[in-house]
Amino acid sequence: MTTALLRHAHTSWSRRYLVNGNAATRVALDDEGIASCLAARHQYAPMTVQTWATSSFLRTQETARLLMGDEAATLVVLPELDELDYGVFEARPFLDYAAWLHEHGPHARVPDGSESQRAGIRRMLTGLVRALDLPSRRTVVCHGLLASFLHWQSERGTADPMPIYFDDVQPVVPRTWHDDDLRRLASAALDNLDEREVIDPGPFPPAWARAGQ
């Protein structure tokens, strides 16, 4: 069986590189995000997706519902897939958070938040593993951090240090794995997420985020 994973469609916040890690703040898709989902819907018609898994955020659920259309499928909300808790940086530019992250490192809990970046990634990975137990075929609509991290993890070399920033991935572009391969990828990633890891801080700000300046 297979699992497709994709980042939610554009919102006015993501276009301005503002962070939103509080599901109570209901950030909806913008016109471009809606249009991209409608344009991509045909990719899913022949896949007969049985289960869609999303976070508890409005933008992931809107993306899933637009992509599913009238298809008879189940939508399952998995809070473990939620966006990172940004604490004091909520609703602020990503680069404000990134500057703090660069200084304090990915294992530090964000002020007024509930988790560090690495703890948030670990939570998201546990949500992904949980999604793999849902009826297949399945599609997971997640946030940018998980999609970017999985892309990096799948391409990394055995000696590559784990970066703080991960290359951005395009919204609504699915990547499909065989379930066993994705489970192994998530398991290997969970094994690597500890405070003994070698961290590559990389340049600041990350090149992909400079458009938000």
TrEMBL record:
Q: Which domain of life is it from?
A: Bacteria
InterPro entries with a match to the protein in the record: His_Pase_superF_clade-1, His_PPase_superfam
Gene3D superfamilies on file: Phosphoglycerate mutase-like (3.40.50.1240)
- Quote the protein name from its UniProt record: Histidine phosphatase family protein
The species this protein belongs to is Myceligenerans salitolerans
Source lineage = Bacteria, Bacillati, Actinomycetota, Actinomycetes, Micrococcales
